[in-house]
Amino acid sequence: MKKFIRGADNIQFINTASGLVTRDFFRFNDNMGLKLDIEAVETYVTNHLRLFLSMAAGLVIFVGLVAVAVFFIYVRGAEQTMVPDVQGHDLTSALLELQVKELYPRINLRFSQSSADKGLVLEQNPPPGTIVKAGRRIQLTVSQGVMVNTIENYIGRNIDEVRMDLQTFLSAQTVSLGGVPVHQLLTLKEPLMYEFSSEPAGTVLQQKPEPGTTVSGPVALELVVSRGSENTMMKIPNLVGLGLEEALDQIGRTSIDFEFTLRSAQSGQRPGTVTAQTPAGDTLTATSTRVAVTMAPPETLPENMVFGLFDYSMAKNPYPLLVRLESILPGGERQRLLTVQYSGGRLTVPYLQPVGAVLVLSLLNREIHRETVTIPVEGLPLGRI
User: Fold this and answer.
1) How many folded domains does the chain comprise?
2) Domain residues for 8?
């Protein structure tokens, strides 16, 4: 219990239990009544500063301890769970079991010794029975099936398809066979052997090792591929008088072997068209015959357009392969100029394209060359007057 005693000019608060006068904090004024003595309060705080600092430090420590306790309660993690045994299970079942335990998979693929293992979990880490927190990632090694252990039958297939299949297979061959790393178990021996045959060009005629041969180590696959018939004949299309797009479209349809040259139109010839060809149109000749085509440039060109001759030397192929020439216009649009089965060598293709366009040459859908259309060194686009 406390009481206060009025003095001459101040009031003292007294703890009645102890009889201790704490401090003169108030003064009595006849005119203003009871008034707080600010100076007295400041003096009291100054004299008891250590006490106040200790109390503040204690409060900070207390709040810190509460915060740490709350933090550890919050981050102590999910409930613990036992890792199930999913080895030998198919992948779908294994994933469902992990999901029930609130565990997440990290999947690795590997070849195994038995085709019956395909799609099954071979290994897991952590091992079954391990106690972990929910949300943990469990590493699963899943079988891709047996690695090729016999040679496939490639006879009768197109060599381009065989190459793609082998490339896909080789990209996945860094595996273990009996614990020993194996790289490129089956490779294609280069260069291939070619011979004339009644089979379509590019058809696999023979292979070594033979189909069904057991593979016990790295093997180089040897293939004999058809060049096509030695005496195959074809009718040369008539290109004279055709414009640029029509002539290239006709060449793409017939896949003749060709070579363009540019020459100004002579008397009686129309600029911007094919003016001559050798052999002449409708001639029956061997498929390997190269047709010389002469084209006259246009008399005038739209502004910023260039009429030129794309000229690129390709490797000679034993039989025609798919070749594509495209233009990427300054605005980003793609424009097909020519698609043809071509046996390689020098490739010449006239074009009419804007300055800044990019000509892209592809072989079997793989880019092999590109160049940008620019104004010729003479200062004017070819054919411009």
Assistant:
1) 4
2) 2-75
**Predicted TM-score (pTM) above 0.70:** no
Radius of gyration for the chain, computed over Cα atoms and rounded to the nearest angstrom: 45
Which tens digits make up the pLDDT trace of 25-69? 555 555 555 566 677 667 776 777 777 778 888 888 888 888 877
Peptide bond into 84 cis (omega under 30): no
Task: Answer yes or no: is 384 within a domain.
Answer: no
pLDDT at 41: 66
Q: CA of 36: how far to CAs of 32, 43, 164, 188, 373, in Å? A: 11, 13, 96, 102, 93
Look up the CATH number of the domain holding residue 278: 3.30.10.20
Same domain membership, residue 204 and residue 111: no
Domain termination residue (choose one: 169, 203, 226): 226
pLDDT tens-place string over residues 215-263: 766 788 999 999 888 777 888 999 999 999 999 999 999 888 999 999 9
DSSP one-letter string for 100-157:
HTT-EEEEEEEEES-GGGTTBEEEEESPTT-EEETT-EEEEEEEEEEPP-B----TTS
Task: Say how far residue 39 (Cα) sits from the centre of its chain.
Answer: 77
CA distance 79 to 96: 19
